[in-house]
Amino acid sequence: MANVAVYNMEGKEVGSLELNDAVFGVEVNEHLVHMAVLQQLANNRQGTQKAKTRSEVRGGGRKPWRQKETGHARQGSTRAPQWTHGGVVFAPVPRDYSFKLNKKEKRAALKSALTSRVNESKFIVLDELKLDEIKTKKFVQVLNNLNVEKALVVLNDMDTNVIKSAGNLPTVKTAQTNEINVFDVLKYETVVVTKDAVKTIEEVYA
Fold it and tell me: Can you give the CATH number for the domain in which 39 is found?
């Protein structure tokens, strides 16, 4: 089992924690990780773009000039794609970009992402993360004590003071254990997790 240090909010090491290899010590499957990221990005696409084809553009019902003996190339409509105000050749239409991964693939991808963070020493465990008031300055001080800038902070429960204190920081995202996903784990340089959250993750994914 991987053994990681446990820190307090002052950035001092206060103990250690053995991580479950079933979650944090699996063989990293890069293909599944890639597919999980693609799925999340694809599922977030609105797919509402639309442009008109030549059959949908208003006008152009009359042939602009006769077929022969004008010196011009033959034209059937002023709404053909080569004309100004004409339709678009392969116009985008509303569509659904989403696709599915089965549950086993999703779980394996998340385990791989978490394992990669542990292997890269970018997985920091806190004994607890509690703030007595909503104060961004105090939250930033905690991150500075841990030498962390861009971080995904995983909490075990809904802590309003911590979540709102981090809300103004563009390089920080807070999430509960049931909200973590592969994209966020890889997007942020460091994953900061409370000790209780680690236990919950192990119970759910082990």
Answer: 3.40.1370.10
pLDDT at site 13: 87
Q: Are residues 28 and 121 in the same domain?
A: yes
Asked if 5 and 24 touch (Cβ cutoff 8 Å), the reply is no
- Taking alpha carbons only, the member of 155, 147, 149 closest to residue 172 is 149
Write down the pLDDT at residue 1.
66
Q: What are 158's two structure tokens?
A: 């809904």
* Burial tier of 177 (Cβ tally within 10 Å: 0-12, 13-18, 19+): buried
C-alpha triplet 186, 116, 35: angle, nearest 5°: 55
Same-domain check for residues 69 and 83: yes
Where do we find the tokens 């950035």?
Answer: 11
Give residue 83's domain range. Answer: 47-96
pLDDT of residue 78: 94
Residues of the chain with pLDDT under 50: none
Judge if 119 and 19 occupy the same domain: yes
Altogether, the residues listed in the chain come to a count of 206
Q: Quote helix, strand, coil % in the chain, to nearest 5.
A: 35, 15, 50
Given a contact cutoff of 8 angstroms between Cβ atoms, the answer to whether 19 and 3 are in contact is: yes
What's this model's pTM, rounded to 2 decimal places? 0.81
pLDDT at 77: 95
> Is the four-CA dihedral 126, 131, 134, 140 of positive or negative sign?
negative
